[in-house]
Structure to design on (228 residues):
């Protein structure tokens, strides 16, 4: 059974550009959530999608957005990149239910973004 | 606001010694607590999930306990091996949604 797949694994962008990251969850998982990991702030929750709807959102500016497709694959987008956006972006999927039962989270290998 | 703390931030032990990793959280109204392992530059690997109704979970050499009333969880790793060297993270989740709140992690080095 394939795990959570994230692409690309590494990317380098310059300030002001935008970036799109992709996440394919474990088959059958309808919940996909995104996290940012930096040395200074640790792991922080960005947002969660369930059945194409954003269900939870963390405390990040509107430059950070996401979406989920009907096959549960998800993308996140960061516009107008800043140096501080350099981080490891992790995607997780779970068997969370519509009523909110969380389930165990499984993470991908992450997308490492460097902003120059 | 939920806060999760892991102390110590780093730990070094000789091979064969048992590891004891601590995690504390401020809001006891959690649904699950999950322990993860992260190797340098890699994603997170789920080790154990403890539901709020459970007191402990075991998998091989790993055992995790949960005391909701005191806001604590402990991860025990028996007979440590150099391959256990990694950063261990605990995270808690409330009932609605999948928002995990993570601790800062404990970096473990097991010396051969």
């Amino acid at each position: 059974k394939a795990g959570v797949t994230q692409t690309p694994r590494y990317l380098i962008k310059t300030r002001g550009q935008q970036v799109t990251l992709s996440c394919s969850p474990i088959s059958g998982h309808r919940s996909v959530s995104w996290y940012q990991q930096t040395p200074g702030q640790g792991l922080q929750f960005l947002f969660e999608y369930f059945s194409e709807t954003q269900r939870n959102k963390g405390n990040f500016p509107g430059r950070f957005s996401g979406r989920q497709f009907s096959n549960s694959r998800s993308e996140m987008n960061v516009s107008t990149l800043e140096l501080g956006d350099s981080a490891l972006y992790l995607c997780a999927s779970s068997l969370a239910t519509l009523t909110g039962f969380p389930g165990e989270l499984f993470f991908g290998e992450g997308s490492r973004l460097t902003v120059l | 606001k939920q806060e999760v703390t892991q102390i110590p931030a780093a730990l070094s032990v000789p091979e064969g010694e048992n590891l004891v990793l601590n995690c504390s959280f401020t809001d006891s109204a959690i649904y699950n607590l999950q322990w993860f392992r992260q190797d340098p530059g890699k994603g997170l690997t789920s080790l154990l999930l403890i539901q709020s109704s459970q007191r402990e979970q075991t998998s091989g050499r790993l055992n995790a306990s949960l005391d909701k009333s005191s806001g604590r969880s402990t991860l025990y790793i028996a007979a440590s091996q150099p391959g256990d060297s990694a950063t261990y993270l605990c995270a808690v989740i409330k009932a609605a949604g999948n928002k995990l709140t993570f601790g800062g992690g404990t970096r473990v080095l097991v010396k051969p």
